Amino acid sequence: MGRLAEGWRLRLPPGHKTYLVRFRVNGVRGERSTGCSDPEQAAIEAARIYADQVQRAPQKIKRVARGDAPPLLDLISNWLATDSTLDPSTALVWESYGRHWLRHWQTMADVTDLTVEEYRNQRLRAVLAQTVRKELGALKRFLVWCHDRHFIPREITMPGVSSKVTGTAHPKRRRVAADELSPDQIERIIEALPEWSKLPKRRTPDDEPKRFPIRARFRVQYETGLRPSTIQALSVPEHYSPGQDFLNITADVDKVRWARQVPLTTKARAALDAICPPKGIIFGGHDLREAIHRAAKTVLPEAAAKRFAGAHLRSARVTHLLEATGDLPGVQFAAGHRQASTTAKYARPSERAARSMLAKLEAIGGQSANSGGKPNNKPKNQKKKPNDSGAKERT
Q1: For the purposes of burial, counting CB atoms within 10 Å of the CB of 146, is it exposed (0-12), middle (13-18) or buried (19 or more)?
Q2: What's the rounded mean pLDDT across residues 339-357?
Q3: Which CATH code of 3.90.580.10, 3.30.1330.10, 1.10.150.320, 1.10.443.10 fits the domain covering 183-196+212-346?
Q4: 3-class SS at 164?
Q5: What 8-state DSSP symbol labels residue 7?
């Protein structure tokens, strides 16, 4: 490895009134004018110029030789395998991030402050900013791991993503925002679903075909407001036992790793008890898009039915619970949102909710908070009566 920053010295050429600073950074010589004729001021300015030059080229200060750098694929694989703090689902997501890194870099010699910034800008032109923030967070953790094991001589400066930056939405984005739907519409969609799947064909004469519940699955999903990934992972007796009035959500089945007990409605308990197996997975993972689409077509207009997805039951439930109760902490807990701002993103405003709000206002008298609920019929310009205490003649 070549020599790194080697310091600076002042020089006053013949016939010049101002000092020059001569320096060498990473083997490259440079010279700048300090603009100062006083030696003390020139020394201060020379130190500033030198520090600026060192900072401007950080990716050239300590660069790993390409022939000595291990392949990036090997490092990513070792990192995911040896980091015991990663749960399996997170490791799978970060493995997908690693595939993006491999398209941008081949070895650790290619990973510099400058190329990481280029990576950020390139990804912002392809995906949303929130995705880039997650990728950079994983990349930072990976590079710290590499530095601790001396695969890179110094930590890489990780660029940020401004909150004002939105990134780029995928042109064929599969997920669409949920429409605002009434409780009656959701109820009719669920009732239009088949109770069970069709029996599959026998593969062998001894093969016992199995079917799975459909309507109960979406009933429980709507009544609880839980994520589809959590619903499909529920099992007996880890998360539910017949007659239980709550779901025991464990950290491994929750997206934000929030272990908690979610209370169940009467409808949710009835649906679970009707199809609950003696032991094992209750619902499992199945492709139910066709079933939910057929049910939505019987209730919604054609355009809305095409947009509707089973995952939209979650935003519908959050909206309906907030409309009915106004209990934000309770809804937030049931949905599994650590932040109230996340719950607000799921709520869908509607004319129905506005009319319901006004009806509740009229039911309590429709008075402003300042009047305390009592009408104020006192004329504005009425003069105050004088205090006649002691006005009578004393005898």
Answers
A1: buried
A2: 90
A3: 1.10.443.10
A4: coil
A5: -
